[in-house]
Task: inverse folding
């Protein structure tokens, strides 16, 4: 199944020419996104022989301007920008609603951080104890305090610009590495309306440089942050991949892992394919699976054996179960005054005021005040039929009066949401494609409705004419794949323990949002990064 028409793609960067296995490897990492990159860098810094296997290509940084120009043209989504391949990325979907898996998948060195929005916030304390505090879901096997030092380390590694101005955020131990980005012009409009409604607004922590940091420039305002940052000011995982390579790690691109060879207690090798049609076995003492919330369970399910007939590391039957994503609620409107949208390509203000009001009926949600509502001048110029003065008048009439408030909403881990192997579709190597069975749930719909109520009140206070809304009857996922290899202390109910090691295998760890027991309603990448650093510590201690 495909979410985009076949697109013209650029020639992949040659990347690693030698795709033969690394001898005497201490650690094999599967996946070169943010989790895999951080694990590889930390272990390489500790003197370990590390090899990273990445299914997609290595993209040349020099091509980012061309990718930006491709995005600016009509109908060029993230798949076209980052060379999506419908055959390679085949998938199936079923359930309460179709899950558009390929709408935001990027396979390649850097993973989804190549196109992400870059918002990085810590989960709230109650997110780690959902069953205890909200009466739904499950509790994590660790609390916020246990993850707090790893959150701080992750903020330093990624480079986060932020301020301690969120009265609803969990406690911090130190300031953010960089100062927050200033509020946008439209933020000031929202702030005035929110103040009248007694709704708190505050800055958004961003993994992009507000000043020069880590040998990367400050943000220069291209405004195409999602899906491509040409300047490199926004963090992506190539930062840590390159650093890991400088420390001796080997990164093999276009090397999709087909299965994991193993006995009852240990993985012996990752079997991967190469572009020339060959296959290789990468042996190592330890294996870290960091291929995300869909491909990680898929790889385990593909690696079934007489030892594990239902999939590797799946004695609990929980591999692939409890798939979660955040849902989006949004309300758009038009003002009779300029709003200066699209001058900033990312969010600079939000509100967590309603987050900790969550209970068993309405979940947590956070509000997002958009800096990019409505059409862009470029989009209007490319899609309109007018020319000359008529085109100028068209742009003046349509651009710059739009406002929008978004929201991220929690979904609960549910038995009827899962990732399985598709019984009919296969990928370009003949392996069963992933199949996402997705359900939303009544609590999530209640939360979407509540978020819409608050959004409507804010836009009405602004004096905006509401023109469009996404909520309970029309919502989309946020492309945050979570929950499919759950972390827990009971081997009968979870796949990994609090140390991220699988219960079934002595030498296999999982660094991914797939280990989240619950998802909260905040962007997951900072928590992924914190858990990846924690995982690296545990792997190093075992070697």
Result:
């Amino acid at each position: 199944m495909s979410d985009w028409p076949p697109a013209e793609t650029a020639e992949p960067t040659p990347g690693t020419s030698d795709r033969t296995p690394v001898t005497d490897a201490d650690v094999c990492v599967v996946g070169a996104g943010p989790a895999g990159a951080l694990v590889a860098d930390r272990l390489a810094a500790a003197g370990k022989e590390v090899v990273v296997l990445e299914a997609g290509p290595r993209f040349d940084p020099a091509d980012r301007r061309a990718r930006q120009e491709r995005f600016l043209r009509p109908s060029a989504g993230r798949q076209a920008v980052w060379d999506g391949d419908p055959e390679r990325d085949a998938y199936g979907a079923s359930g309460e609603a179709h899950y558009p898996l390929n709408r935001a998948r990027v396979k390649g060195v850097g993973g989804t951080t190549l196109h992400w929005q870059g918002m990085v916030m810590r989960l709230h304390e109650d997110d780690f104890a959902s069953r205890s505090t909200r009466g739904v879901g499950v509790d994590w096997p660790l609390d916020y305090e246990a993850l707090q030092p790893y959150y701080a380390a992750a903020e330093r590694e990624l480079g986060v610009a932020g301020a301690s101005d969120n009265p609803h955020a969990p406690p911090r131990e130190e300031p953010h590495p960089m100062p927050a980005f200033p509020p946008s012009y439209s933020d000031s409009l929202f702030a005035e309306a929110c103040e009248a409604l007694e709704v708190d607004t505050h800055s958004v922590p961003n993994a992009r440089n507000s000043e020069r940091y880590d040998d990367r420039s400050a943000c220069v305002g291209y405004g195409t942050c999602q899906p491509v940052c040409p300047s490199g000011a926004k963090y992506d995982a190539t930062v840590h991949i390159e650093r890991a390579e400088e420390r001796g790690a080997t990164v093999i691109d276009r090397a999709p892992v087909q299965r994991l060879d193993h006995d009852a207690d240990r993985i012996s090798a990752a079997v991967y394919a190469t572009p020339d049609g060959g296959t290789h076995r990468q042996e190592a003492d330890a294996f870290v699976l960091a291929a995300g919330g869909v491909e990680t369970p898929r790889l385990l399910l593909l690696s079934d054996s007489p030892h594990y007939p239902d999939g590797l590391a799946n004695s609990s039957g929980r591999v692939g179960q409890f798939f979660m994503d955040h849902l989006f609620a949004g309300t758009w409107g038009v003002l009779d005054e300029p709003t200066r949208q699209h001058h900033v390509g990312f969010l600079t203000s939000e509100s967590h005021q309603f987050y900790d009001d969550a209970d068993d009926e309405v979940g947590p949600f956070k509000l997002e005040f958009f800096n990019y509502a409505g059409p862009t001048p470029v989009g209007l110029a490319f899609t309109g039929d007018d020319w000359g003065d008529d085109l100028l008048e068209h742009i003046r009439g349509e651009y710059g009066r739009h406002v929008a408030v978004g929201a991220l909403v929690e979904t609960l881990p549910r038995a009827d949401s899962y990732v399985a192997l598709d019984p009919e579709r296969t990928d370009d190597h003949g392996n069963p494609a992933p199949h996402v069975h997705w359900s939303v749930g009544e609590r999530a719909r209640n939360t979407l409705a509540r978020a819409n109520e608050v959004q409507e009140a804010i836009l009405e206070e602004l004096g905006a004419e509401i023109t469009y809304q996404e909520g309970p009857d029309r919502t989309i996922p946020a492309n945050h794949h979570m929950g499919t290899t759950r972390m827990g202390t009971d081997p009968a109910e979870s796949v990994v323990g609090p140390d991220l090691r699988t219960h079934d295998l002595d030498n296999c760890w999982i660094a991914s949002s797939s280990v989240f027991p619950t998802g909260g309603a905040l962007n997951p990448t900072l928590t992924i990064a914190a858990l990846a650093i924690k995982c690296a510590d545990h792997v190093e201690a075992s070697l």
Remarks:
- The chain has a mean pLDDT of 93.
- The CA atoms of residues 69 and 97 lie 33 Å apart.
